[in-house]
Amino acid sequence: MNLQKQMLEELENKEIFHQAKNYAFEYIDGIEQKDVYPQEENLKKLQVFHEELGNEPTAAKDVLALLNDIGSLGTITSTGGRYFGFVTGGATPISLATKWLTDLWDQCGGLYAISPINAELERVCEKWLINLLGLPDGTVAGFVSGASMANFSALTAARYHILKGLGWDVNKKGLNGSPKIRLITHSQIHASIRKSLVLLGFGSEDIEYISHDEQGRMVVNELPELDNSCLILLQAGNVNTGAFDDFETVCEQANKAGAWVHIDGAFGLWAAATKKLSYLTKGIEKADSWVLDGHKTLNVPYDSGIVLCKHADSMINALQATAAYIIYSGENRDPMLYTPEMSKRSRAIELWATLKYLGKNGVDELITTLHENAKQLADGLKKAGFSILNEVVFNQVLIALDTDQKTNSVLQYLQKSGRVWMGGSTWNGKAAIRVSISSWRTNELDINTTVALFKEAREACVVYS
Ligand SMILES: *Cc1c(COP(=O)(O)O)cnc(C)c1O
């Protein structure tokens, strides 16, 4: 076998690339007919992948065929219009096409020296995001795998900055014996924040929880006296209700006291880029760090998370790595100064393409339409006699029947139907069906179909029980 010769032929005749393209187009064209979540019998077929790794190579065309014929049966149709699970987001055509093109470039996005185009587009995205969200000039952005890593990056910067202000260099002295950072939040904060805090050396008992209201928002009049040892963790978009904390009130108190405010806005912060919904994010510009995902609300392909920080020096000091072979380029942007990773995907390119394609008005329309579809679904379900447990301020809808048992059976029916998929949750002690409208592709017909399916499920479940 001459592997190199074979691979050169593959590059030259491009058959496998055409094959992949044909499969991909079939997939896109069939997305609305495909099961939204795979049926049990198709999931079982995935067992064929659990084989021993053979000694001999497999023909490239057979590798692709196996993935297409069997592997694609194990996909969920988050790029279609009726997948409402988690807060997954769809993918716009321009973002997918850009990802294809730039996958072939295979750029390592860590340094200007390894990918000038990625570094330049990161700089452009940083500027555009500051402008879209109305954040302070001088804010810096890091492009990471998702909001989890973005939260981790922001909190690393906050830890460095707060301890520095208390006369302690955490990079030199570590956490042993350091002054105490007060972590203040409410129990509706996202799990990824709690995980980041643990990764950063804090324990769950270090967190001071204050109350939240029935929508999951911080009860701000319970805020304790603040000072410059405080890190306050807020949220733009509760994963159940979609609710937003009161940034204006908290930031005003925090700013006076020199405390750091962090806002996890993985899917919700995009509301700031709309005319109709920006009232939800009032005051965010007074915070210190922000997190959002490209891969959720903005419908950029996975993976794409963004961290933004007002204190460029603290961010760079907290995340910088040095080694003799790393060549920082000085006046050009070096992406790894703003992220925990060194090598990384050049994901800012797809983010740039999506923003360039949409423009400010397109971003506004995309986000506002998600909200309007969520409202329409909630209205339709309410008319049909279902309870809506949340105020539908953004894209999340929580639905319940009169007993938890009925709620859970309706959810199971819907999940198995193949025609729609959504997850379950509990809200204020009650079982809930949790719908997230986060794909550009969802339209009025999808909403009406979903309302009809809810009614069908309720009838079927009454018969069974
Ligand atoms: C999804 C989500 C996260 C985690 O984001 P990933 O992109 O999955 O890492 C964090 N916070 C909130 C509010 C989220 O919705």
Notes on the protein architecture:
With 465 residues, this protein is of the alpha/beta class. The protein has three domains: 3-73; 99-354, Type I PLP-dependent aspartate aminotransferase-like (Major domain) (Aspartate Aminotransferase, domain 2, 3-Layer(aba) Sandwich), CATH 3.40.640; 361-464, Aspartate Aminotransferase, domain 1 (Alpha-Beta Complex). Helices cover 42% and strands 12% of the residues. It is built from 14 helices and eleven strands. The chain has helices spanning 3-13, 15-30, 40-45, 60-69, 93-105, 116-133, 147-165, 170-173, 191-199, 247-257, 312-319, 348-383, 404-416, 444-464; strands at 140-144, 182-186, 207-210, 230-235, 260-264, 289-293, 305-309, 387-388, 396-400, 423-427, 430-436. The chain has a seven-stranded mixed sheet, sandwiched between helices. Strands 8-9-11-10 form a four-stranded antiparallel sheet. A hairpin with a 2-residue loop joins β10 and β11 (430-436). α2 runs parallel beside α4, α5 packs antiparallel against α12 and α12 crosses α14 (444-464). The longest helix has 36 residues, at 348-383. The radius of gyration is 24 Å and the shape is globular. The chain starts with a helix and ends with a helix. 44% of the residues are buried.
